[in-house]
Design brief:
Strand order of the largest sheet: 1-2-3-4-5-6
Shape: globular
Number of helices: 4
Order of helices and strands: HHEEEEEEHH
Helix content: 25-40%
Structural class: alpha+beta
Number of strands: 6
Distance between the termini: 25 Å
Strand content: 25-35%
């Protein structure tokens, strides 16, 4: 069930997921050396460069309470928060943002970060306390 989030809740959830993803993305470098690898999170925009033109941008879209993804493999995608499932769901085909990222990063780097929407949400809520 997609929920209309208040500004405060939206900001908390989006900041939490982007910060948690940033931390997880840095783990890629622990597993594989990639020339040009870089991760940067600032002002609601998470950028990751895997080298060889493989760039990701994940950013907040406060006016419509979404997260937008730009991927080198699947292009642009938009996600709404599903309050029942506690994850970001694609607006067109209902796939999960975190699951897509996990699959694509494994394809591009041969590293399985084992990203889990449930674990990331629990991490966000733990940090809130």
């Amino acid at each position: 069930m997609q929920a209309i989030l208040g500004d405060s809740e939206y900001n908390q959830i989006t900041h939490g997921i982007l910060e948690a993803l940033s931390d997880k993305f840095f783990e890629l470098e622990d597993h594989k050396q990639m020339p040009g690898f870089d991760v940067e999170y600032s002002d609601g925009v998470l950028r990751m460069n895997l080298g060889d033109g493989n760039n990701y941008v994940i950013n907040k879209q406060p006016p419509n309470k979404q997260i937008w993804l730009s991927s080198p493999l699947c292009g642009p995608k938009r996600y709404n928060w599903d309050s029942t499932e506690k994850k970001w769901i694609n607006t067109r085909d209902s796939h999960c943002l975190v699951s897509l990222l996990n699959a694509e990063l494994k394809q591009l780097t041969d590293v399985d970060l084992q990203l889990s929407p449930k674990d990331l949400y629990e991490e966000i809520m733990k940090d809130k306390e």
